[in-house]
C-alpha cells in the first residue's frame, strides 16, 4: 500500500531527524561523517532548502536534527 503524501504548508518549517538502525552508530569513522556532511551540502544546494538550525551528535541515538524551510514540496 502506498503511503499518503506528506502535508506541505508553504513557509512552514520541517523538523528532520536521522537515527542509526537499531540504535547503531550512523558513522563508522570520520571519513563517513565527512562524506555525509558533503552530501548534505550538495542536497541543500540541489533542492533549495534553508537550514536555520542544525545539531549534529555522532553518537548512536540521534545523529542529525534540522529545522529547514523547503522552497518546494519534498519527499524526505
UniProtKB/TrEMBL annotation:
Phosphoprotein listed as a keyword: no
Q: Name one GO biological process term.
A: DNA transposition
SUPFAM superfamilies per record: Transposase IS200-like (SSF143422)
Q: Which InterPro entries match?
A: Transposase_17_sf (IPR036515)
UniProtKB keywords: Membrane, Transmembrane, Transmembrane helix
Q: Which residues cross the membrane?
A: 44-69
What domain of life? Bacteria
Transmembrane found in the keyword field? yes
MF terms (GO), sorted A to Z: DNA binding; transposase activity
Q: What is this protein called?
A: Transposase
Amino acid at each position: 500500500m502506498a503511503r499518503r503524501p506528506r502535508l506541505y504548508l508553504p513557509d512552514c518549517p520541517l523538523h528532520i531527524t536521522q537515527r542509526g538502525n537499531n540504535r547503531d552508530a550512523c558513522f563508522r569513522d570520520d571519513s563517513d561523517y565527512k562524506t555525509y556532511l558533503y552530501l548534505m551540502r550538495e542536497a541543500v544546494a540541489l533542492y533549495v532548502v534553508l537550514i536555520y538550525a542544525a545539531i549534529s551528535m555522532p553518537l548512536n541515538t540521534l545523529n542529525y536534527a534540522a529545522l529547514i524551510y523547503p522552497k518546494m514540496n519534498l519527499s524526505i
